[in-house]
Amino acid sequence: MKPKIILNRLTISIFALAAMTLPLVAQTDNPVADGGNSSGYDMAPETTLEVVEAAVAQIPTKLPPGPFQPTWDSLKENYKVPSWFVGAKFGLFMHWGLYSVPAHHNEWYEKHMYGADRQWHAEHFGPPDQFGYKDFIPLFTQSNFNADAWAELFKKSGVKFVVPTAQHHENFAMWDSAVTPFNAMQMGPHRDLIGELCQAVRKQGLKFGVSNHGIENFQFINPPAELVEKMKAEHADLYDPKWADFYNVADRSDAACEKFLVNWFARNVELIDKYQPDLLWFDNGVDQRYLDPLKLRVAAYYYNRAKAWGKEVSLSTKKAAYAPSNKNTETIGSIIDFEKIGARSPSGIRTGAWQVDEPIGSTWGYTEGERISGPAPIIAKLADTVSKNGTLLLNLSPKADGTFPPEISATLLEIGAWLGVNGEAIYDTHNWTKFGEGGGRGKSGLNIRFTVKGENLYAIILGNWPGAEAVITSLAAGEKLEGKIATVTMLGSEGRLKFTQDDTDLKVKLPATAPCKYAYVLKITGLKMNPPTWTKSGNPQLQVGLDGK
Fold first, then answer.
1. CATH number, domain 72-425, options 3.40.50.1000, 3.40.630.30, 3.20.20.80, 3.40.50.1970
2. Which of 479, 387, 482 is nearest to 426 (CA)?
3. Buried/exposed code over 86-119 (b: 16+ C-beta within 10 A; e: otherwise)
4. What is the mean pLDDT of residues 81-95?
5. Strands lying side by side in the sheet with 506-509
6. In this predicted model, what pLDDT tens digit does every residue of 156-187 receive, in sequence order?
């Protein structure tokens, strides 16, 4: 089914219609990661604007009263990045779902078990026509899940918000749902997992969001022809009528797609109304322009409901999902999220508001033998992200019994201990005129990241303890800095530190012993600092004076 753009409806704004004629903008290698949607579908339903509009017309839910209408102009006029997000800087993400039962390959196990991993699946559980993905549901017990224990661990880790997966590509709802029978209250653990965690997290004073990857389910599974024929003939698994709406394989007609999209909207409304999430996060599947009428309606519903609650909330989406110009630097009504630190995320300073989701382990969902990062690399990634004005959303991978691997808990506690000493240089900060020095391939000297709060400059020294002295070339007198350095201290240590400054560098005599592990923060006063760089829209300012080095 090839997507086509049909411009014969009036239910979509003129602004959005105009945007649909624009070419897609490829991701480019530049400091702010100024990119757009890919030409592929990222597993979005491969459909048309006409089908999407037909689905929107079938939605029985009326928009709540409020200033937001389902148009780009309305979102642009009324949206504002939540103030709590601007200063949070560190949150937890979570891939939590049925894939943790087989714990093999990755969180796309459902896709693989009907394709490349059929043999492995057959050897461990039986042929997929006899033991299908649905048969993992009773094994997803969450028998040791303790929401309060999780929330206490999260609080100790130093995060400010938590975003568990409410639904992944697999189409299983992790909450008590009235709009889908395939949910954690009626099946599997027989508990409202999202509801329990929501209550526990908020009890700890943290913000709570949910992620919904569900729109990617409609065409997630693509079994080979011979397996299709066998299952069709036997009405087995993917072609069992009782499970047709779980798998969305047997019928991918336009009518089925419309039904799926209406239900996707209903699930989002249910999550919004039941849990009042502070953040509603969507994966790549909502990127395509032909889905704009549907996702605009979700946004208008969510933001009007939040107005009634008196809460600051936001969507968070990838690439150009909420950017009708197809440039992610012109996002409307959403905080841009980048997947993984690296080629697709900012390599330099990006002002405004943005976040990057990064796995703590070698896979997003729990797998046997998953390699878990220790605290040092995560703290380095946190400092690097914040120095570029971003927020780190660290992904965890819970097990099927509702526990975390001990390495994850240990890493989180160590990060929390570090933030207990150095959080002043992370929370409520913004970027300096350059994000750091050193650390690159072939570069000598210390690996340093800079952050700013008020008139204080923080220099975060990554890696091993430098020893007796820290040398910072970016703070040389020859750099023509505004003001004059008055004091240098180290967070976690008593007293002022001696320093000298010349045209080459700033040299600081360090304390005899390190105040913490993993990274060490110098607090520098006396210089004139640049003002906060967040924006109401979340989009970056013009990069005047920001060299990105």
1. 3.20.20.80
2. 387
3. bbbbbbbbbbbbbbbbbbbbbbbbbbbbbbebbe
4. 98
5. 469-472, 506-509, 499-501
6. 999 999 999 999 999 999 999 999 999 999 99
Q: What is the pLDDT of residues 420-454, one digit of tens each?
A: 999 999 999 999 999 999 976 656 689 999 999 99
Token output for 330: 């012109």
Which residues belong to CATH 2.60.40.1180 in the chain?
A: 436-527
Encoding tokens for residue 471? 């040398």
pLDDT at residue 519 is higher than 90: yes
The backbone torsions φ and ψ at residue 8, rounded to the nearest 5 degrees and listed phi first, read -110, 15
Phi, psi of 279, deg, nearest 5: -145, 130
Domain 436-527 is in which class? mainly beta
Please give the single-letter amino acid code of residue 292: D
pTM for the model = 0.93
Q: What is the pLDDT of residues 357-409, one digit of tens each?
A: 999 999 999 999 999 999 999 999 999 999 999 999 999 999 999 999 999 99
Helices and strands: H and E segment counts in the chain: 14, 16
